[in-house]
Amino acid sequence: MAAAGILVAFAETKTDTSAPGVVIEKKYPWESSVSAGLTLTRGNTSTTLFTADFLTKRKTPTDEYMFFLGGAYGEQNSTDTVNNYKASAQWNHLFTDRFYCYLRAEGLRDIIANLDYRLTIGPGLGYYLIKATNTTLAAEVGANFEAQKLGGQDQTFATVRLAERYEYKFNDHARLWENAEIFPQVDKFENYVVNFEIGIEASLTKSFSLKTYLDDTYANRPAADRKKNDVKIVAGVSYKF
Predict the structure, then answer these.
(1) pLDDT in tens, 104-120
(2) DSSP code of 2?
(3) Which site among 47, 143, 209, 240 is 20 to 30 Å from 31 CA-CA?
(4) Sign of the CA dihedral 84, 176, 97, 196?
(5) For the domain that residue 104 is a member of, what is the CATH number?
(6) pLDDT-derived band of residue 2, with 50, 70 and 90 as boundaries?
(7) Residue 151 domain-assigned?
(8) How many domains does the chain have?
């Protein structure tokens, strides 16, 4: 379904009533960015943290597309402390200006958390509680099929997805965003994962900006001898194209 939705036309045409016969092409381009961050400390403690991600999205009057790829690697005194990779894709189809259905797929690998893979896919419904020029707030609810290999054990089960996404643009040069989601297992609600992110971005030029964000993942049932919470704070540079 998502692949079929992506193959829509990249432009919409309409007739200019002020000039009969003249067709105006209205384009809805992809908005993409690549970000990278690097933190180094040397001395009594030697630490390294590198992050990189790619984000692209496109909005039309009836459809929204979002794709994300990211990874992080960190070490302290030659011991790995962060090593994870994530990919996600979501397609929203709007029935009205605010109400939509979606299809979402996500993959995660976190070596430090002893998570070989976690794959989720499922449909859902969403609604824009706020949809203004500078502010958006959307709430989503859906169902997922989840497959993972955690602590060397393969597991498959169904989850519910509850999520919200918020963005506020101070002006054309600065924005604040926040999103959160929880995935409780349908038949074992005590087995759940919470993802939370909050950040701020400020433009340096038309193409470059500074971005700082906090990323938190909480797994109520982690692998043996692993902590439930993983938090990282990232500061980096983003290039938009």
Answers:
(1) 999 999 999 999 999 99
(2) H
(3) 143
(4) positive
(5) 2.40.160.40
(6) very low
(7) yes
(8) 1
Phi, psi of 8 (to 5 degrees): -80, 165
Q: How many residues does the chain have?
A: 241
- Specify the range with the lowest mean pLDDT, choosing from 16-25, 101-110, 156-165, 179-188: 16-25
Range of the domain at 129: 2-15+46-240
Short-list 232, 183, 191, CA closest to 212: 232
Q: Say if 30 falls within a structural domain.
A: no
Record the tokens describing residue 143, joined without a space.
């169902």
184 and 192 in contact (C-beta within 8 Å)? yes
For residue 33, give the amino acid letter. Answer: S
Per-residue pLDDT tens for 110-163?
Answer: 999 999 999 999 999 999 999 999 999 999 999 999 999 999 999 999 999 999
User: Residue 138's Cα: distance from chain center in Å?
Assistant: 14
